[in-house]
Amino acid sequence: MNQTKYIFVTGGVTSSLGKGIIAASLAKLLQARGYRTTIQKFDPYLNVDPGTLNPYEHGECYVTDDGAETDLDLGHYERFLNVPTSQANNVTTGRIYLSVIEKERRGEFLGKTVQVVPHITNEIKDRMQLLGQSGDYDIIITEIGGTVGDIESLPYIESVRQLVWDLGENNAIVIHLTLVPFLAAAGELKTKPTQHSVKTLMESGIKADILVCRTEHELSQEIRSKLALFCNVKKEAVIQSIDASTIYEVPNLMLEEGLDIVALKKLDLPKKAAPDLKNWNTFLKRLKSPKHTVNVGLIGKYVEMQDCYKSILEAFIHAGAANETKVNVVSIHSEYIDEENIAEKFKDIDAILVAPGFGERGIEGKIAAVRYARENNMPFFGICLGMQMSVIEYSRNVLGLADANSTEMNSDTPNPVVNLMEEQKNVTDKGGTMRLGAWKCEIKPDTLAYKIYGQTTINERHRHRYEYNSAYVADLEKAGLKASGVNPDTGLVEIVEIENHPFFIGVQYHPEYKSTVANPHPLFVNFVAAAVKARKK
Ligand code: GLN
Protein backbone atom coordinates (compact mmCIF):
# COMPACT_ATOMS: atom_id res chain seq x y z
CA MET A 1 0.00 0.00 0.00
CA ASN A 2 1.20 3.49 -0.79
CA GLN A 3 1.97 5.90 2.00
CA THR A 4 -1.02 8.14 2.81
CA LYS A 5 -0.08 11.78 2.42
CA TYR A 6 -1.17 14.52 4.80
CA ILE A 7 -1.96 18.17 4.21
CA PHE A 8 -2.54 20.37 7.26
CA VAL A 9 -4.39 23.65 6.91
CA THR A 10 -3.80 26.28 9.60
CA GLY A 11 -5.21 29.78 9.83
CA GLY A 12 -3.62 33.08 10.70
CA VAL A 13 -4.41 36.77 11.27
CA THR A 14 -8.17 36.38 11.79
CA SER A 15 -10.83 33.72 11.94
CA SER A 16 -13.53 33.34 9.26
CA LEU A 17 -11.08 33.40 6.35
CA GLY A 18 -12.69 30.26 4.95
CA LYS A 19 -10.24 27.48 5.79
CA GLY A 20 -13.05 24.98 5.25
CA ILE A 21 -13.69 26.23 1.72
CA ILE A 22 -9.99 26.24 0.83
CA ALA A 23 -9.60 22.72 2.21
CA ALA A 24 -12.71 21.57 0.32
CA SER A 25 -11.58 23.26 -2.90
CA LEU A 26 -8.13 21.69 -2.79
CA ALA A 27 -9.69 18.33 -2.01
CA LYS A 28 -12.03 18.78 -4.97
CA LEU A 29 -9.10 19.41 -7.32
CA LEU A 30 -7.13 16.45 -6.01
CA GLN A 31 -10.22 14.25 -6.27
CA ALA A 32 -10.79 15.51 -9.83
CA ARG A 33 -7.22 14.45 -10.67
CA GLY A 34 -7.99 10.95 -9.46
CA TYR A 35 -6.77 11.01 -5.85
CA ARG A 36 -8.93 9.50 -3.13
CA THR A 37 -9.18 12.41 -0.76
CA THR A 38 -10.99 13.26 2.44
CA ILE A 39 -10.97 16.16 4.85
CA GLN A 40 -11.12 16.18 8.63
CA LYS A 41 -11.50 19.03 11.06
CA PHE A 42 -9.97 19.43 14.52
CA ASP A 43 -11.76 21.99 16.65
CA PRO A 44 -10.12 23.58 19.68
CA TYR A 45 -13.14 23.96 21.97
CA LEU A 46 -13.97 21.82 25.01
CA ASN A 47 -17.44 20.66 24.02
CA VAL A 48 -17.21 16.99 23.07
CA ASP A 49 -19.15 17.85 19.92
CA PRO A 50 -21.14 20.88 18.71
CA GLY A 51 -24.44 19.09 19.39
CA THR A 52 -24.91 20.88 22.68
CA LEU A 53 -24.03 24.31 21.27
CA ASN A 54 -26.67 26.94 20.65
CA PRO A 55 -26.74 27.64 16.87
CA TYR A 56 -26.03 31.32 17.63
CA GLU A 57 -22.67 30.20 19.07
CA HIS A 58 -21.38 28.04 16.30
CA GLY A 59 -23.88 27.97 13.44
CA GLU A 60 -25.56 24.81 12.26
CA CYS A 61 -24.77 21.42 13.72
CA TYR A 62 -24.12 19.13 10.77
CA VAL A 63 -25.15 15.47 11.08
CA THR A 64 -23.41 12.59 9.31
CA ASP A 65 -24.79 9.18 8.29
CA ASP A 66 -23.26 7.55 11.36
CA GLY A 67 -25.07 10.00 13.61
CA ALA A 68 -22.18 12.26 14.55
CA GLU A 69 -23.08 15.85 15.43
CA THR A 70 -20.33 17.84 13.76
CA ASP A 71 -18.98 21.18 12.63
CA LEU A 72 -20.68 22.79 9.66
CA ASP A 73 -17.47 22.63 7.61
CA LEU A 74 -18.11 18.90 7.20
CA GLY A 75 -21.16 19.95 5.22
CA HIS A 76 -18.89 21.82 2.81
CA TYR A 77 -16.64 18.79 2.50
CA GLU A 78 -19.58 16.59 1.53
CA ARG A 79 -21.14 19.17 -0.77
CA PHE A 80 -17.86 19.60 -2.66
CA LEU A 81 -16.64 16.00 -2.70
CA ASN A 82 -19.93 14.09 -2.74
CA VAL A 83 -18.37 11.54 -0.36
CA PRO A 84 -19.93 10.96 3.07
CA THR A 85 -18.00 11.92 6.20
CA SER A 86 -18.29 10.38 9.66
CA GLN A 87 -17.47 10.94 13.33
CA ALA A 88 -13.80 10.34 12.54
CA ASN A 89 -13.79 13.48 10.35
CA ASN A 90 -14.46 15.84 13.26
CA VAL A 91 -12.63 15.84 16.56
CA THR A 92 -12.77 18.46 19.31
CA THR A 93 -10.46 19.14 22.23
CA GLY A 94 -13.31 17.99 24.47
CA ARG A 95 -13.34 14.58 22.75
CA ILE A 96 -9.55 14.30 23.01
CA TYR A 97 -9.49 15.10 26.72
CA LEU A 98 -12.49 12.88 27.45
CA SER A 99 -10.73 9.95 25.88
CA VAL A 100 -7.39 10.61 27.62
CA ILE A 101 -9.09 11.05 30.99
CA GLU A 102 -11.08 7.83 30.51
CA LYS A 103 -7.81 6.01 29.75
CA GLU A 104 -6.28 7.50 32.88
CA ARG A 105 -9.23 6.24 34.97
CA ARG A 106 -8.78 2.77 33.49
CA GLY A 107 -5.16 2.88 34.58
CA GLU A 108 -3.79 2.70 31.07
CA PHE A 109 -0.95 5.12 31.74
CA LEU A 110 0.65 2.78 34.29
CA GLY A 111 1.25 5.30 37.01
CA LYS A 112 2.76 7.96 34.76
CA THR A 113 1.96 11.67 35.11
CA VAL A 114 -0.56 12.44 32.35
CA GLN A 115 0.44 15.58 30.45
CA VAL A 116 -0.47 17.69 27.42
CA VAL A 117 2.78 16.55 25.81
CA PRO A 118 2.94 13.63 25.13
CA HIS A 119 -0.47 12.24 26.16
CA ILE A 120 -2.82 14.79 24.65
CA THR A 121 -0.62 15.25 21.60
CA ASN A 122 -0.36 11.47 21.11
CA GLU A 123 -4.13 11.19 21.22
CA ILE A 124 -4.39 14.01 18.66
CA LYS A 125 -1.80 12.41 16.40
CA ASP A 126 -3.54 9.02 16.58
CA ARG A 127 -6.81 10.59 15.57
CA MET A 128 -5.19 12.64 12.82
CA GLN A 129 -3.97 9.38 11.26
CA LEU A 130 -7.08 7.29 11.85
CA LEU A 131 -8.70 7.84 8.44
CA GLY A 132 -5.32 7.53 6.76
CA GLN A 133 -4.84 4.09 8.26
CA SER A 134 -8.10 2.83 6.77
CA GLY A 135 -6.37 2.54 3.39
CA ASP A 136 -9.37 4.26 1.79
CA TYR A 137 -7.55 7.50 1.03
CA ASP A 138 -4.43 8.68 -0.77
CA ILE A 139 -4.51 12.16 0.72
CA ILE A 140 -5.96 13.40 4.01
CA ILE A 141 -6.50 17.11 4.44
CA THR A 142 -6.71 18.20 8.08
CA GLU A 143 -8.18 21.57 8.92
CA ILE A 144 -7.07 22.96 12.29
CA GLY A 145 -9.82 25.15 13.73
CA GLY A 146 -9.02 28.54 15.23
CA THR A 147 -6.09 30.82 14.54
CA VAL A 148 -2.38 30.24 15.08
CA GLY A 149 -1.30 31.80 18.36
CA ASP A 150 -4.53 30.99 20.18
CA ILE A 151 -3.86 29.34 23.53
CA GLU A 152 -6.37 26.60 22.82
CA SER A 153 -4.83 25.70 19.43
CA LEU A 154 -1.37 25.03 20.84
CA PRO A 155 -1.67 21.24 21.34
CA TYR A 156 -2.86 20.86 17.74
CA ILE A 157 -0.02 22.96 16.36
CA GLU A 158 2.46 20.97 18.42
CA SER A 159 0.93 17.72 17.13
CA VAL A 160 1.25 18.93 13.54
CA ARG A 161 4.91 19.79 14.19
CA GLN A 162 5.57 16.30 15.52
CA LEU A 163 3.64 14.58 12.74
CA VAL A 164 5.42 16.44 9.95
CA TRP A 165 8.65 15.36 11.60
CA ASP A 166 7.50 11.73 12.09
CA LEU A 167 6.10 11.33 8.59
CA GLY A 168 8.81 13.19 6.73
CA GLU A 169 8.68 16.33 4.61
CA ASN A 170 7.34 14.74 1.44
CA ASN A 171 4.54 12.99 3.26
CA ALA A 172 3.10 15.89 5.23
CA ILE A 173 2.86 19.57 4.35
CA VAL A 174 1.37 22.68 5.91
CA ILE A 175 -0.78 25.23 4.15
CA HIS A 176 -1.22 28.47 6.05
CA LEU A 177 -4.26 30.59 5.23
CA THR A 178 -3.82 34.27 6.00
CA LEU A 179 -5.27 37.67 5.26
CA VAL A 180 -3.60 40.32 3.14
CA PRO A 181 -5.65 43.38 4.05
CA PHE A 182 -6.12 46.40 1.79
CA LEU A 183 -5.61 49.74 3.52
CA ALA A 184 -7.84 52.16 1.69
CA ALA A 185 -6.10 55.24 3.12
CA ALA A 186 -2.73 54.03 1.86
CA GLY A 187 -4.23 52.42 -1.25
CA GLU A 188 -2.08 49.37 -0.58
CA LEU A 189 -2.20 45.69 0.25
CA LYS A 190 -0.31 44.96 3.45
CA THR A 191 1.84 41.88 4.03
CA LYS A 192 2.88 42.51 7.63
CA PRO A 193 0.04 40.60 9.34
CA THR A 194 0.96 37.57 7.21
CA GLN A 195 4.65 37.92 8.07
CA HIS A 196 3.81 37.96 11.77
CA SER A 197 1.44 35.06 11.50
CA VAL A 198 4.04 32.94 9.70
CA LYS A 199 6.53 33.92 12.40
CA THR A 200 4.12 32.74 15.10
CA LEU A 201 3.87 29.42 13.29
CA MET A 202 7.67 29.22 13.14
CA GLU A 203 7.96 29.86 16.86
CA SER A 204 6.03 26.61 17.22
CA GLY A 205 8.50 24.86 14.96
CA ILE A 206 6.31 24.76 11.86
CA LYS A 207 7.40 26.05 8.49
CA ALA A 208 4.49 26.80 6.17
CA ASP A 209 4.99 25.14 2.79
CA ILE A 210 2.24 27.05 1.03
CA LEU A 211 0.61 30.39 1.82
CA VAL A 212 -2.96 30.95 0.75
CA CYS A 213 -3.68 34.67 0.98
CA ARG A 214 -7.22 35.94 1.29
CA THR A 215 -7.48 39.31 -0.39
CA GLU A 216 -10.00 41.74 -1.83
CA HIS A 217 -7.57 42.83 -4.57
CA GLU A 218 -5.23 41.00 -6.95
CA LEU A 219 -1.80 40.27 -5.47
CA SER A 220 0.86 41.87 -7.69
CA GLN A 221 4.06 40.01 -8.59
CA GLU A 222 5.86 42.37 -6.26
CA ILE A 223 3.65 41.50 -3.30
CA ARG A 224 4.01 37.81 -4.08
CA SER A 225 7.79 38.12 -4.16
CA LYS A 226 7.77 40.03 -0.90
CA LEU A 227 5.61 37.42 0.82
CA ALA A 228 7.84 34.64 -0.51
CA LEU A 229 10.98 36.38 0.71
CA PHE A 230 9.76 37.23 4.19
CA CYS A 231 7.77 34.07 4.79
CA ASN A 232 10.29 31.52 3.63
CA VAL A 233 8.20 29.98 0.84
CA LYS A 234 8.72 29.64 -2.92
CA LYS A 235 6.99 32.31 -4.96
CA GLU A 236 4.86 29.68 -6.73
CA ALA A 237 3.65 28.67 -3.27
CA VAL A 238 2.14 32.10 -2.61
CA ILE A 239 -1.45 31.48 -3.63
CA GLN A 240 -3.95 34.26 -4.00
CA SER A 241 -7.48 33.62 -2.77
CA ILE A 242 -9.46 36.58 -3.97
CA ASP A 243 -13.05 37.19 -2.83
CA ALA A 244 -15.42 35.17 -5.01
CA SER A 245 -19.09 35.69 -5.83
CA THR A 246 -19.85 32.13 -4.68
CA ILE A 247 -17.88 29.54 -2.71
CA TYR A 248 -18.38 27.15 -5.62
CA GLU A 249 -16.06 29.32 -7.70
CA VAL A 250 -13.12 28.70 -5.37
CA PRO A 251 -11.94 25.34 -6.82
CA ASN A 252 -11.49 27.02 -10.22
CA LEU A 253 -9.69 29.98 -8.65
CA MET A 254 -7.35 27.59 -6.84
CA LEU A 255 -6.79 25.69 -10.08
CA GLU A 256 -5.77 28.92 -11.83
CA GLU A 257 -3.37 29.67 -9.00
CA GLY A 258 -1.93 26.16 -9.18
CA LEU A 259 -2.60 25.26 -5.54
CA ASP A 260 -3.11 21.58 -6.37
CA ILE A 261 0.07 21.40 -8.47
CA VAL A 262 2.21 23.01 -5.78
CA ALA A 263 0.76 20.70 -3.13
CA LEU A 264 1.35 17.58 -5.25
CA LYS A 265 4.91 18.65 -5.99
CA LYS A 266 5.65 19.14 -2.31
CA LEU A 267 4.14 15.75 -1.56
CA ASP A 268 6.17 14.14 -4.30
CA LEU A 269 3.05 12.91 -6.06
CA PRO A 270 2.41 12.88 -9.83
CA LYS A 271 -0.09 15.35 -11.29
CA LYS A 272 -2.00 12.47 -12.92
CA ALA A 273 -4.76 13.70 -15.23
CA ALA A 274 -5.87 17.32 -15.58
CA PRO A 275 -8.76 17.77 -13.15
CA ASP A 276 -12.09 16.67 -14.56
CA LEU A 277 -14.41 19.48 -13.51
CA LYS A 278 -16.95 19.07 -16.31
CA ASN A 279 -19.99 18.45 -14.14
CA TRP A 280 -18.86 21.00 -11.60
CA ASN A 281 -18.58 23.67 -14.27
CA THR A 282 -21.95 22.77 -15.77
CA PHE A 283 -23.41 23.37 -12.31
CA LEU A 284 -21.57 26.70 -12.03
CA LYS A 285 -22.79 27.83 -15.42
CA ARG A 286 -26.39 27.08 -14.53
CA LEU A 287 -25.92 28.78 -11.17
CA LYS A 288 -24.64 31.95 -12.79
CA SER A 289 -27.11 32.30 -15.64
CA PRO A 290 -30.54 31.54 -14.20
CA LYS A 291 -33.65 31.77 -16.37
CA HIS A 292 -36.14 32.26 -13.54
CA THR A 293 -36.23 33.85 -10.11
CA VAL A 294 -38.25 32.83 -7.07
CA ASN A 295 -38.59 34.14 -3.54
CA VAL A 296 -38.64 31.40 -0.95
CA GLY A 297 -39.54 32.38 2.61
CA LEU A 298 -37.34 30.69 5.20
CA ILE A 299 -39.37 30.69 8.41
CA GLY A 300 -37.13 30.20 11.40
CA LYS A 301 -36.07 31.66 14.70
CA TYR A 302 -32.34 31.85 14.02
CA VAL A 303 -32.64 33.81 10.79
CA GLU A 304 -30.39 36.66 12.00
CA MET A 305 -27.43 34.36 11.58
CA GLN A 306 -26.93 32.79 8.14
CA ASP A 307 -24.72 29.98 9.43
CA CYS A 308 -27.59 28.55 11.49
CA TYR A 309 -29.28 27.28 8.32
CA LYS A 310 -26.13 26.67 6.26
CA SER A 311 -27.08 23.32 4.72
CA ILE A 312 -30.57 24.54 3.83
CA LEU A 313 -29.17 27.62 2.09
CA GLU A 314 -26.64 25.51 0.18
CA ALA A 315 -29.31 22.95 -0.77
CA PHE A 316 -31.27 25.82 -2.33
CA ILE A 317 -28.21 26.80 -4.36
CA HIS A 318 -27.90 23.24 -5.71
CA ALA A 319 -31.64 22.99 -6.38
CA GLY A 320 -31.71 26.46 -7.93
CA ALA A 321 -28.99 25.52 -10.41
CA ALA A 322 -30.82 22.29 -11.23
CA ASN A 323 -33.90 24.38 -12.08
CA GLU A 324 -31.89 27.19 -13.74
CA THR A 325 -33.51 29.40 -11.15
CA LYS A 326 -32.19 32.05 -8.83
CA VAL A 327 -33.61 31.25 -5.42
CA ASN A 328 -33.83 34.33 -3.24
CA VAL A 329 -34.11 32.99 0.26
CA VAL A 330 -36.04 35.59 2.24
CA SER A 331 -35.48 35.11 5.95
CA ILE A 332 -38.65 35.67 7.96
CA HIS A 333 -38.39 35.60 11.73
CA SER A 334 -41.03 33.21 13.07
CA GLU A 335 -41.29 35.11 16.36
CA TYR A 336 -42.79 38.11 14.58
CA ILE A 337 -45.35 36.34 12.40
CA ASP A 338 -49.00 36.24 13.43
CA GLU A 339 -52.36 35.72 11.72
CA GLU A 340 -52.76 39.50 11.32
CA ASN A 341 -49.50 40.42 9.65
CA ILE A 342 -48.83 37.25 7.70
CA ALA A 343 -50.44 38.25 4.39
CA GLU A 344 -48.33 41.40 4.36
CA LYS A 345 -45.14 39.51 5.27
CA PHE A 346 -45.76 36.86 2.59
CA LYS A 347 -46.91 39.18 -0.19
CA ASP A 348 -43.79 38.72 -2.35
CA ILE A 349 -43.16 35.12 -1.32
CA ASP A 350 -43.72 32.26 -3.78
CA ALA A 351 -43.13 29.31 -1.44
CA ILE A 352 -42.17 28.70 2.18
CA LEU A 353 -39.84 26.42 4.05
CA VAL A 354 -40.50 26.05 7.77
CA ALA A 355 -37.16 25.37 9.40
CA PRO A 356 -35.99 22.87 12.02
CA GLY A 357 -35.56 24.05 15.58
CA PHE A 358 -35.88 23.39 19.28
CA GLY A 359 -38.05 24.89 22.00
CA GLU A 360 -41.06 27.11 22.13
CA ARG A 361 -39.81 30.42 20.80
CA GLY A 362 -41.43 31.35 17.50
CA ILE A 363 -43.51 28.22 17.06
CA GLU A 364 -46.91 29.96 16.83
CA GLY A 365 -45.48 31.96 13.92
CA LYS A 366 -44.40 28.73 12.27
CA ILE A 367 -47.89 27.27 12.72
CA ALA A 368 -49.44 30.42 11.24
CA ALA A 369 -47.05 30.12 8.27
CA VAL A 370 -48.08 26.50 7.64
CA ARG A 371 -51.73 27.49 7.74
CA TYR A 372 -51.20 30.33 5.31
CA ALA A 373 -49.37 28.08 2.84
CA ARG A 374 -51.99 25.35 3.14
CA GLU A 375 -54.98 27.64 2.71
CA ASN A 376 -53.44 29.74 -0.06
CA ASN A 377 -52.04 26.86 -2.12
CA MET A 378 -48.53 28.13 -1.58
CA PRO A 379 -45.80 25.46 -1.90
CA PHE A 380 -44.83 24.30 1.58
CA PHE A 381 -41.82 22.33 2.75
CA GLY A 382 -41.42 21.55 6.47
CA ILE A 383 -38.24 20.10 7.90
CA CYS A 384 -38.14 18.34 11.28
CA LEU A 385 -39.73 20.88 13.64
CA GLY A 386 -41.31 22.37 10.48
CA MET A 387 -42.96 19.02 9.77
CA GLN A 388 -44.12 18.71 13.38
CA MET A 389 -45.68 22.18 13.09
CA SER A 390 -47.65 21.04 10.05
CA VAL A 391 -49.08 18.15 12.10
CA ILE A 392 -50.11 20.59 14.84
CA GLU A 393 -51.59 23.05 12.36
CA TYR A 394 -53.65 20.35 10.64
CA SER A 395 -54.86 18.98 13.95
CA ARG A 396 -55.92 22.39 15.17
CA ASN A 397 -57.47 23.89 12.07
CA VAL A 398 -58.76 20.91 10.09
CA LEU A 399 -59.41 18.24 12.71
CA GLY A 400 -60.69 20.85 15.17
CA LEU A 401 -58.37 19.98 18.07
CA ALA A 402 -57.82 23.60 19.08
CA ASP A 403 -55.42 22.69 21.88
CA ALA A 404 -53.25 20.27 19.85
CA ASN A 405 -49.56 20.76 20.53
CA SER A 406 -46.18 19.09 20.91
CA THR A 407 -45.23 18.02 24.41
CA GLU A 408 -41.93 19.81 23.75
CA MET A 409 -43.88 23.09 23.93
CA ASN A 410 -46.61 22.14 26.38
CA SER A 411 -46.12 18.98 28.41
CA ASP A 412 -49.77 19.03 29.60
CA THR A 413 -51.48 19.47 26.27
CA PRO A 414 -54.66 17.36 26.12
CA ASN A 415 -53.86 16.56 22.49
CA PRO A 416 -50.17 15.69 22.20
CA VAL A 417 -50.11 15.17 18.43
CA VAL A 418 -46.33 15.38 18.62
CA ASN A 419 -44.72 13.71 21.62
CA LEU A 420 -41.46 12.49 23.02
CA MET A 421 -40.26 9.23 21.43
CA GLU A 422 -40.53 6.22 23.72
CA GLU A 423 -36.76 5.60 23.63
CA GLN A 424 -36.17 9.20 24.78
CA LYS A 425 -38.24 8.97 27.94
CA ASN A 426 -35.41 7.87 30.23
CA VAL A 427 -32.73 10.01 28.57
CA THR A 428 -31.29 12.68 30.86
CA ASP A 429 -27.94 13.52 29.24
CA LYS A 430 -28.16 16.10 26.49
CA GLY A 431 -25.01 15.29 24.47
CA GLY A 432 -25.34 12.84 21.57
CA THR A 433 -28.61 11.33 22.82
CA MET A 434 -31.13 12.37 20.18
CA ARG A 435 -32.32 10.05 17.41
CA LEU A 436 -29.38 10.74 15.15
CA GLY A 437 -28.04 9.79 11.75
CA ALA A 438 -29.33 7.71 8.87
CA TRP A 439 -32.56 5.75 9.27
CA LYS A 440 -34.64 3.95 6.71
CA CYS A 441 -37.98 5.19 5.44
CA GLU A 442 -40.45 3.30 3.25
CA ILE A 443 -42.39 5.49 0.84
CA LYS A 444 -45.95 4.63 -0.14
CA PRO A 445 -46.82 4.46 -3.84
CA ASP A 446 -49.09 7.11 -5.38
CA THR A 447 -47.75 9.87 -3.17
CA LEU A 448 -45.94 13.12 -3.85
CA ALA A 449 -42.97 11.70 -1.94
CA TYR A 450 -42.82 8.72 -4.30
CA LYS A 451 -43.04 10.99 -7.33
CA ILE A 452 -40.13 13.02 -5.97
CA TYR A 453 -37.82 10.18 -4.93
CA GLY A 454 -38.84 7.65 -7.58
CA GLN A 455 -38.09 4.82 -5.17
CA THR A 456 -39.69 3.14 -2.20
CA THR A 457 -36.78 2.83 0.24
CA ILE A 458 -34.76 5.87 1.22
CA ASN A 459 -32.17 6.65 3.89
CA GLU A 460 -32.13 10.09 5.42
CA ARG A 461 -30.39 11.74 8.36
CA HIS A 462 -32.15 12.64 11.59
CA ARG A 463 -31.73 14.78 14.67
CA HIS A 464 -34.76 14.87 16.94
CA ARG A 465 -36.35 13.66 20.18
CA TYR A 466 -40.03 14.13 19.37
CA GLU A 467 -42.22 12.39 16.80
CA TYR A 468 -45.64 12.48 15.19
CA ASN A 469 -47.81 10.67 17.77
CA SER A 470 -49.07 7.42 16.19
CA ALA A 471 -52.32 7.65 18.19
CA TYR A 472 -53.41 10.51 15.92
CA VAL A 473 -52.22 9.19 12.56
CA ALA A 474 -55.46 7.42 11.55
CA ASP A 475 -57.69 10.43 12.33
CA LEU A 476 -55.40 12.86 10.56
CA GLU A 477 -55.15 10.55 7.53
CA LYS A 478 -58.94 10.52 7.33
CA ALA A 479 -58.94 14.30 7.53
CA GLY A 480 -56.46 14.48 4.63
CA LEU A 481 -52.98 14.58 6.12
CA LYS A 482 -51.31 11.55 4.57
CA ALA A 483 -48.43 9.72 6.16
CA SER A 484 -46.57 8.96 2.95
CA GLY A 485 -43.34 7.65 4.45
CA VAL A 486 -42.73 5.57 7.57
CA ASN A 487 -39.82 3.86 9.25
CA PRO A 488 -40.35 0.15 8.44
CA ASP A 489 -39.09 -1.06 11.82
CA THR A 490 -40.79 1.33 14.23
CA GLY A 491 -43.69 2.75 12.24
CA LEU A 492 -42.51 6.29 13.00
CA VAL A 493 -44.01 8.68 10.46
CA GLU A 494 -41.21 10.25 8.43
CA ILE A 495 -43.17 12.11 5.72
CA VAL A 496 -46.54 13.85 5.69
CA GLU A 497 -48.29 15.46 2.74
CA ILE A 498 -51.75 16.65 1.67
CA GLU A 499 -53.55 15.98 -1.57
CA ASN A 500 -55.16 18.68 -3.69
CA HIS A 501 -52.42 21.13 -2.94
CA PRO A 502 -49.73 22.12 -5.45
CA PHE A 503 -46.91 21.07 -3.09
CA PHE A 504 -47.23 20.39 0.61
CA ILE A 505 -44.70 18.11 2.24
CA GLY A 506 -43.21 17.78 5.72
CA VAL A 507 -40.31 15.50 6.62
CA GLN A 508 -39.11 14.41 10.06
CA TYR A 509 -35.55 14.08 8.75
CA HIS A 510 -33.04 16.61 7.40
CA PRO A 511 -32.72 16.26 3.62
CA GLU A 512 -30.51 19.36 3.49
CA TYR A 513 -27.54 17.42 4.91
CA LYS A 514 -27.41 15.16 1.89
CA SER A 515 -27.65 17.74 -0.88
CA THR A 516 -24.40 18.08 -2.85
CA VAL A 517 -23.28 19.77 -6.06
CA ALA A 518 -23.19 16.38 -7.79
CA ASN A 519 -26.50 15.25 -6.24
CA PRO A 520 -28.89 18.09 -5.49
CA HIS A 521 -31.53 16.79 -3.13
CA PRO A 522 -34.74 15.78 -4.99
CA LEU A 523 -37.00 17.35 -2.33
CA PHE A 524 -35.32 20.72 -2.74
CA VAL A 525 -35.23 20.37 -6.54
CA ASN A 526 -38.96 19.63 -6.67
CA PHE A 527 -39.81 22.30 -4.13
CA VAL A 528 -37.99 24.96 -6.17
CA ALA A 529 -39.75 23.70 -9.32
CA ALA A 530 -43.07 24.11 -7.48
CA ALA A 531 -42.06 27.63 -6.46
CA VAL A 532 -41.28 28.50 -10.11
CA LYS A 533 -44.72 27.21 -11.10
CA ALA A 534 -46.41 29.14 -8.30
CA ARG A 535 -44.70 32.35 -9.31
CA LYS A 536 -45.80 32.01 -12.93
CA LYS A 537 -49.38 31.81 -11.73
N1 GLN B 1 -37.34 19.91 18.52
C1 GLN B 1 -37.81 18.89 17.67
C2 GLN B 1 -37.45 17.49 18.18
O1 GLN B 1 -36.56 17.35 18.96
C3 GLN B 1 -37.33 19.06 16.25
C4 GLN B 1 -35.86 18.97 16.10
C5 GLN B 1 -35.34 19.52 14.81
O2 GLN B 1 -35.99 20.33 14.16
N2 GLN B 1 -34.13 19.15 14.42
O3 GLN B 1 -38.05 16.54 17.77
UniProtKB/TrEMBL annotation:
<feature type="binding site">
    <location>
        <position position="56"/>
    </location>
    <ligand>
        <name>L-glutamine</name>
    </ligand>
</feature>
<feature type="binding site">
    <location>
        <position position="15"/>
    </location>
    <ligand>
        <name>UTP</name>
    </ligand>
</feature>
<feature type="binding site">
    <location>
        <position position="357"/>
    </location>
    <ligand>
        <name>L-glutamine</name>
    </ligand>
</feature>
<protein>
    <recommendedName>
        <fullName>CTP synthase</fullName>
        <ecNumber>6.3.4.2</ecNumber>
    </recommendedName>
</protein>
<comment type="pathway">
    <text>Pyrimidine metabolism; CTP biosynthesis via de novo pathway; CTP from UDP: step 2/2.</text>
</comment>
<dbReference type="InterPro" id="IPR033828">
    <property type="entry name" value="GATase1_CTP_Synthase"/>
</dbReference>
<feature type="binding site">
    <location>
        <position position="143"/>
    </location>
    <ligand>
        <name>Mg(2+)</name>
    </ligand>
</feature>
<dbReference type="InterPro" id="IPR004468">
    <property type="entry name" value="CTP_synthase"/>
</dbReference>
<keyword id="KW-0460">Magnesium</keyword>
<feature type="binding site">
    <location>
        <begin position="385"/>
        <end position="388"/>
    </location>
    <ligand>
        <name>L-glutamine</name>
    </ligand>
</feature>
<feature type="binding site">
    <location>
        <position position="15"/>
    </location>
    <ligand>
        <name>CTP</name>
    </ligand>
</feature>
<feature type="active site" description="Nucleophile; for glutamine hydrolysis">
    <location>
        <position position="384"/>
    </location>
</feature>
<feature type="binding site">
    <location>
        <begin position="190"/>
        <end position="195"/>
    </location>
    <ligand>
        <name>CTP</name>
    </ligand>
</feature>
<keyword id="KW-0315">Glutamine amidotransferase</keyword>
<feature type="domain" description="Glutamine amidotransferase">
    <location>
        <begin position="305"/>
        <end position="529"/>
    </location>
</feature>
<keyword id="KW-0665">Pyrimidine biosynthesis</keyword>
<feature type="binding site">
    <location>
        <position position="244"/>
    </location>
    <ligand>
        <name>ATP</name>
    </ligand>
</feature>
<dbReference type="InterPro" id="IPR017456">
    <property type="entry name" value="CTP_synthase_N"/>
</dbReference>
<keyword id="KW-0547">Nucleotide-binding</keyword>
<feature type="domain" description="CTP synthase N-terminal">
    <location>
        <begin position="5"/>
        <end position="269"/>
    </location>
</feature>
<feature type="binding site">
    <location>
        <begin position="150"/>
        <end position="152"/>
    </location>
    <ligand>
        <name>CTP</name>
    </ligand>
</feature>
<feature type="binding site">
    <location>
        <begin position="16"/>
        <end position="21"/>
    </location>
    <ligand>
        <name>ATP</name>
    </ligand>
</feature>
<dbReference type="InterPro" id="IPR017926">
    <property type="entry name" value="GATASE"/>
</dbReference>
<feature type="region of interest" description="Amidoligase domain">
    <location>
        <begin position="1"/>
        <end position="269"/>
    </location>
</feature>
<feature type="binding site">
    <location>
        <position position="226"/>
    </location>
    <ligand>
        <name>CTP</name>
    </ligand>
</feature>
<keyword id="KW-0436">Ligase</keyword>
<feature type="active site">
    <location>
        <position position="510"/>
    </location>
</feature>
<feature type="binding site">
    <location>
        <position position="73"/>
    </location>
    <ligand>
        <name>Mg(2+)</name>
    </ligand>
</feature>
<feature type="binding site">
    <location>
        <position position="465"/>
    </location>
    <ligand>
        <name>L-glutamine</name>
    </ligand>
</feature>
<feature type="binding site">
    <location>
        <position position="408"/>
    </location>
    <ligand>
        <name>L-glutamine</name>
    </ligand>
</feature>
<dbReference type="InterPro" id="IPR027417">
    <property type="entry name" value="P-loop_NTPase"/>
</dbReference>
<keyword id="KW-0479">Metal-binding</keyword>
<dbReference type="Pfam" id="PF00117">
    <property type="entry name" value="GATase"/>
</dbReference>
<feature type="active site">
    <location>
        <position position="512"/>
    </location>
</feature>
<dbReference type="InterPro" id="IPR029062">
    <property type="entry name" value="Class_I_gatase-like"/>
</dbReference>
<feature type="binding site">
    <location>
        <begin position="190"/>
        <end position="195"/>
    </location>
    <ligand>
        <name>UTP</name>
    </ligand>
</feature>
<feature type="binding site">
    <location>
        <position position="226"/>
    </location>
    <ligand>
        <name>UTP</name>
    </ligand>
</feature>
<comment type="function">
    <text>Catalyzes the ATP-dependent amination of UTP to CTP with either L-glutamine or ammonia as the source of nitrogen. Regulates intracellular CTP levels through interactions with the four ribonucleotide triphosphates.</text>
</comment>
<keyword id="KW-0067">ATP-binding</keyword>
<comment type="similarity">
    <text>Belongs to the CTP synthase family.</text>
</comment>
<comment type="subunit">
    <text>Homotetramer.</text>
</comment>
<dbReference type="Pfam" id="PF06418">
    <property type="entry name" value="CTP_synth_N"/>
</dbReference>
